[in-house]
Amino acid sequence: MLRRNGFSLVEVVFAVGILAIVLLLLIGLMVTATTGSGSNHETVVGMALAESEIDRWKRESFTFLEDSLGSNLSMETADGRPHDIEMRIERMDTVAGSPDFDVLRLVATITWESRTIDPGTRKREGRVRLETQICGGARY
Q: What residue ranges in 7-124 does DSSP mark as E strands?
């Protein structure tokens, strides 16, 4: 009877091949997770800017908001890069036969140059849009 010590060359090559495939899959998974995490971080920063901008405008009087109808553009640096802020104030239409409410829509749109490419648009642009409504009262 022949006694074997160790592994044959075929067994070693097979084991190394399986190990290489598993490592390549794990590296790909790590790259995807890191990219997604960076993109999510950018979106959170953009959403925080949008919320801050909406809150800033909501602290103003209703009369001031009515006088500011249209678009207001500004730029703010956050997370080490510039973010363009568009704050749009619109008067909402009323429905015939209902009380005439003074309602304004506040829309904050934040755009920035992203570190990652958006697969849908193939652009390096991040965008977040947040809106709310403010009611000044009702007239009958």
A: 70-78, 81-91, 100-113
pTM: predicted TM-score of the whole model, two decimal places: 0.67
Site of tokens 């890069």: 81
25: its two tokens: 């899959």
Residue 75 tokens, joined: 């730029």
Give the pLDDT confidence of 90-140 residue by residue, as tens digits: 988 776 666 667 888 999 999 998 877 766 767 788 889 999 998 876 554
* Three-state SS at 27: helix
For β-strands 81-91 and 70-78, DSSP reports them as antiparallel
CA gap 98, 104 in Å, rounded: 16
Contact 108, 86 (CB under 8 A): yes
